[in-house]
Amino acid sequence: MNATDQRWFEYHHLVTFGDTNAAGSVYFAKYFSWQGECREKLLAQFYPEFANELKQGFGMTTEFAQQDFSSEAALFDQLLIRLTVTALTRSRIEFEFEFVREPDGRLLGRGRQAVIWTNPQHRPSLMPDKLYDVTASYFGIPIPHQSSKT
Predict the structure, then answer these.
(1) Average per-residue pLDDT in the chain?
(2) Is there a domain that residue 148 lies in?
(3) Could you tell me if residue 89 is inside a domain?
(4) In this structure, what CATH number is given to the domain that contains residue 43?
(5) Domain total in the chain
C-alpha cells in the first residue's frame, strides 16, 4: 500500500496556551502528547470497550515513539493531526502521524509510534478480536486467513 492509498484517522486541534511556552511556540514534547491524544480519540470512536479493558488491567504499552519536525507550531494555530496504521499483528500496532497546520497545509512534522497489547500482568498478549478486526478493516489491512485441515 503506498502513501496515497493509506486511510487516515484525522482530528483538528487548536493550539492553546497550555500547548505553548512563554514565547508562544509549541515545545517538542507536546507532539508526543498529541500522538497519544490522537490514538485515544481513534480508540474512543472505534473501540470504546477499551475503557473497560483498562479497568480489567489490560492496556497498551508504548514500544517506541519518535517525532521529526519540519516547521514550528504556535499559539492559536489550527492543526490537523492524522494517524494511520503501518503494521498490525495480533499483539502490536504501529502508527504513523502527520501534523499539518491549517489552512495553509504546511507539514509541521511526522511521527511514529508502536504499542503492544498487554494483559493484567503487563505481559504482551493477544489483543481482543474486535480491536484487531476494527483496526484492520478501517485501515484496509488484509487479515490473514487461517488454513483449515481437511
Answers:
(1) 92
(2) no
(3) yes
(4) 3.10.129.10
(5) 1
3-state secondary structure of 79: strand
Q: Which domain holds residue 91?
A: 3-139
- State the cell numbers at 15: 493550539
Q: DSSP assignment, residue 19? A: G
At 40, give phi and psi (nearest 5°): -70, -35
Give the separation between CA 113 and CA 35, rounded to whole angstroms: 8
Flag whether pLDDT at 82 surpasses 90: yes
pLDDT > 90: percent of the chain? 86
Q: Is residue 150 situated within a structural domain?
A: no
Cross-strand pairs, 87: 94
140 conformational bin, left if phi > 0, alpha if psi -120 to 50, beta if neither: left
Q: How many CB atoms lie within 10 A of CB 95?
A: 22
Q: How far apart are CA 93 and CA 132, in angstroms?
A: 9
CA angle 26, 29, 32 (to 5 degrees): 110
In a domain, 105, yes or no: yes
71: number of Cβ within 10 Å: 12
